[in-house]
């Protein structure tokens, strides 16, 4: 297991995605409107678009290019044109550090 520091909790703005790359894996980190931190794959499965450039509402992120929304909890696409999920990563908060293992996806 190779847990890595992705960012600090204080860097995260509510409903504002942050893109990080850990061990070559692009990850979209979001602190949702409830204050919960999520980490999903940053690339929309419909097109090669960064989800961290998208829009957050509740516990979803919307790809700005074609409007597909993804669940921040499960990675599942909630509407077309995307039909494949994005990976979801476990997040650990240790003090002010946000820790993620980019090699292990959560079982949903």
Automatic annotation (TrEMBL):
Give the matching InterPro entries: Rieske_2Fe-2S, Rieske_2Fe-2S_sf
Single annotated GO MF? oxidoreductase activity, acting on paired donors, with incorporation or reduction of molecular oxygen
Record keywords: Metal-binding included? Answer: yes
Q: Which domain of life is it from?
A: Bacteria
User: Does the keyword Iron belong to this entry?
Assistant: yes
| Pfam families noted in UniProt | Rieske
Write down what this protein is called: Non-heme iron oxygenase ferredoxin subunit
């Amino acid at each position: 297991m190779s847990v890595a520091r992705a960012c600090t909790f204080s860097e995260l703005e509510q409903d504002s995605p942050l893109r990080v790359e850990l061990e070559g894996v692009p990850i979209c980190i979001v602190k949702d409107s409830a204050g919960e931190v999520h980490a999903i794959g940053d690339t929309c499965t419909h097109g090669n678009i960064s989800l961290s450039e998208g829009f957050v509402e509740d516990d979803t992120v919307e790809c700005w290019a074609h409007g597909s929304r993804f669940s921040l909890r499960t990675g599942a696409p909630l509407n077309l044109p995307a039909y494949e999920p994005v990976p979801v990563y476990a997040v650990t908060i240790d003090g002010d550090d946000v820790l993620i293992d980019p090699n292990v996806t959560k079982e949903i």
